[in-house]
Design brief:
about 90 residues, about 65% helix, 4 helices, flat
């Protein structure tokens, strides 16, 4: 590996350590800008990965950060493609 490639790899590892993959509901709301109800609904529809935390006695939920990212990206690119197709048809 070259120096720049090692720098990129080190940055990705540091991001993983600093930002855990699994988030509680409150952290997922802040991260995603979706409401609590929206996140739970998305998880129940299996659009994102989330479920009641088995370690919680209060019924808290936990969410997979990567699935939230994938969901948002898929919607961004879907909207972008739709806009491009509309522009091409003009």
């Amino acid at each position: 590996m070259t120096g720049p490639e090692l720098d990129i790899l080190a940055t990705k590892i540091a991001e993983r350590i600093a930002s855990p993959r699994w988030m509680k509901l409150t952290a997922a709301v802040k991260y995603s800008s979706y409401s609590r109800a929206q996140l739970i609904e998305l998880a129940e529809r299996r659009d994102i990965v989330g479920y009641p935390d088995p370690d919680s006695k209060r019924g808290d939920w936990i969410f997979d950060k990567e699935s939230i990212d994938e969901y948002r990206l898929s919607h961004f690119f879907g909207a972008r493609q739709k806009a491009l197709s509309i522009l091409k048809s003009l």
